[in-house]
């Protein structure tokens, strides 16, 4: 076999191993994120459904949530760790995992505003954005997940509860 064939087979093998390893890392990351979300989602009551969008994203929809919420949706977007070029592109752009929480309230907010961290959203990482709107969804919180997800998820739901309490 020629050296070019060895190179092609070696590269194909490396990509296959990377694909499997990236998928396993994302699956573990998603499991850890789900475990961190579980206690906060139980507080919301209602009926929850989870939908997986490949190995790099999942969405949890909660209908008939407890007051003051009508419905809550949690979207987790994990970096595409299965493809080396996607990982490099995300790192170059400063992107990674992101948690998006959207909530419809029983009462429509009387004002609209957009808050960005770190000044106006204490406890959340830089790059976090909270939007309060009169149309659906009333609350939209996007939080970058860097490192360990548990404290970030806790801070995100604390921020969400605090913002809803301010509206009451």
Write the layout of secondary structure elements.
Blueprint: H1 3-43, E1 47-52, E2 57-63, E3 69-77, H2 84-93, E4 97-105, E5 113-116, E6 129-132, E7 139-145, H3 149-167
Antiparallel strand pairs: 1-2, 2-3, 3-4, 4-7, 5-6, 6-7
Write a structural description:
The chain is α+β, with helices and mostly antiparallel strands. The protein has one domain. The protein is 42% helix and 27% strand. It contains 3 helices and 7 strands; from the N terminus they run H-E-E-E-H-E-E-E-E-H. The chain has helices spanning 3-43, 84-93, 149-167, and strands spanning 47-52, 57-63, 69-77, 97-105, 113-116, 129-132, 139-145. It has a 7-stranded antiparallel beta sheet, with helices on one face. Strand 1 (47-52) and strand 2 form a beta hairpin. Helix 1 runs parallel beside helix 3. The longest helix is centred in the first third of the chain and has 41 residues, at 3-43.
List keywords for this structure.
single chain, 168 residues, seven-stranded antiparallel sheet, 3 helices, 27% strand
Count of domains:
1
Shape: elongated
Question: What Rg, in angstroms, do the CA atoms define?
Answer: 19 Å
Estimated helix fraction:
40-55%
Secondary structure: number of strands = 7
Strand percent estimate: 25-35%
How would you classify the quaternary structure? single chain
Structure class: alpha+beta
Strand order of the largest sheet: 1-2-3-4-7-6-5
- Tell me about the biggest sheet? 7 strands, antiparallel
The parts where pLDDT drops under 50 for at least 5 residues are none
């Amino acid at each position: 076999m020629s050296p070019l064939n060895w190179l092609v087979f070696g590269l194909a093998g490396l990509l296959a191993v990377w694909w499997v390893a990236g998928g396993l890392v994302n699956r573990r990351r998603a499991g850890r994120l789900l475990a961190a979300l579980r206690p906060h989602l139980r507080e919301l009551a209602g009926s929850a459904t989870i939908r997986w969008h490949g190995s790099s994203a999942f969405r949890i929809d909660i209908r008939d949530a407890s007051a003051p919420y009508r419905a809550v949706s949690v979207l987790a977007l994990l970096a595409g760790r299965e493809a080396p070029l996607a990982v490099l592109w995300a790192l170059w752009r400063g992107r990674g995992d992101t948690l998006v929480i959207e909530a419809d309230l029983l009462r429509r907010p009387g004002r609209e505003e957009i808050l960005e961290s770190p000044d106006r959203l204490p406890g959340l990482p830089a790059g976090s954005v909270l939007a309060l709107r009169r149309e659906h969804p009333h609350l939209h919180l996007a939080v970058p997940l860097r490192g360990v997800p548990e404290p970030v998820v806790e801070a995100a739901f604390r921020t969400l509860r605090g913002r809803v309490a301010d509206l009451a």
